[in-house]
Amino acid sequence: MRNDLIKAFFCYPFDIKSRRLYRTWRISKLKLIMTLVIRNEEEIIEQNIRFHKAMGVDGFIVISHNSTDRTNEILEKLKKEGLILEIIYRTTPAHQRNVWVEEMIKIASKRYKADWIINADADEFYYSKQWNLKKSIYEMRKFNINVFIVDSYFLFPDNRDDFLNCPYFVERFIPYQELELMDEDEKDICSKYTAPCPCRKVIHKTKGFKKIWPGNHGIKMFKRRMIKPADILLYHYGMKNYAGYEAKIKRWQEAIKHTPQNMSGHIRAMIKLYNEGRLREDYEANWGIHARKVLEENGQVVKDPSVINFMKYHNISPVMSKD
């Protein structure tokens, strides 16, 4: 194998096998680590980690903040399997996500010699069309890029328990001009998904890192060079089902007691609906069958089985483990 690599290095253009072997070796040497800040994510965290491991991520650093369900038990199991590099437990009342993410970036860079980092949440699934994130990253090397901008596709829930088997995603954000041509019912539903895309995340190199923006929506780098790769997408399972929606609002209600300055008007409005007993009504209006049909007819919601197919191929269950 060493001789084949040497041949490939000295560029024998006719020796395709050697060149492919050299490319595979270079990809394997690239170190990709994912950081996660989570709380009470027992229904998705195992699938998230197994998915990204199969997608090429080398290791995971996880901060669990005051988790009270089976999250910590699942994390310890995955650490014993060698998937998770480190678990850091935080018990402070305040949720200091940005501080913690930067702490994990330093650990990944200095302790584990990461070349690239993905800072994710438990409900974010980064997908490479090549079925390998490191391949996608490696192929952009000639452009000397140090930041990838990744577009989000949002799950449109069909209110099932095994929400990872739901194939509906919002994948088109309409221009405002198109919105003006709709009737009032359509406009009210479709206006939530207007251009420009409201949610982009970054994947970044460790070399040159300076500061991450809140929510991983941007980054400060030394000589930042960014590109939006066509073959990396983010499937976001933020709205899993009604039970998950209600649980999220309850977490926000608890968090707002400690960090009110970090809560947007949207979050406050959701908490108000919950306290008034109108949360289910809001869910049906925004994510019910009627809303989905309108968005499908308009081409905003489509059936996309990419994550489902990848998980089936790698035997990753869409339902959390009970062992």
Return the CATH topology.
Spore Coat Polysaccharide Biosynthesis Protein SpsA, Chain A
Structural class assignment: alpha/beta
List low-confidence stretches. none
Cα separation of the termini: 41 Å
Helix content: 25-40%
H/E topology pattern? HHEHEHEHEEHEEHHEEEEEHHHHEH
Average pLDDT rating: 88
Our estimate of the beta-strand percent is 15-25%
> Could you say which overall geometry the principal axes of the C-alpha atoms support?
globular
- Mind telling me which CATH architecture this is? Alpha-Beta Complex
CATH class: Alpha Beta
- Please provide the count of β strands: 13
How many domains, as an integer?
1
Please compute the radius of gyration using only Cα atoms: 21 Å
Helix tally?
13
Largest sheet: 11 strands, mixed
Question: Could you characterize what this model shows?
Answer:
This protein has 323 residues and is of the alpha/beta class. The chain has a single domain (2-10, 19-313), classed as Spore Coat Polysaccharide Biosynthesis Protein SpsA, Chain A (Alpha-Beta Complex), CATH 3.90.550. The chain has 13 helices and 13 strands. The protein has helices at 2-9, 16-29, 45-54, 71-80, 97-110, 133-138, 176-179, 184-190, 242-255, 265-275, 279-287, 289-297, 306-313; strands at residues 32-38, 59-65, 84-90, 116-120, 124-128, 147-155, 168-170, 200-205, 209-212, 219-221, 226-227, 232-236, 301-303. Strands 1, 2, 3, 4, 5, 6, 7, 8, 11, 12 and 13 form an eleven-stranded mixed β-sheet that branches. The chain has a two-stranded antiparallel ribbon with strand order 9-10. A hairpin with a 6-residue loop joins strand 9 and strand 10 (219-221). It is globular. The two termini are 41 Å apart. The mean pLDDT is 88.
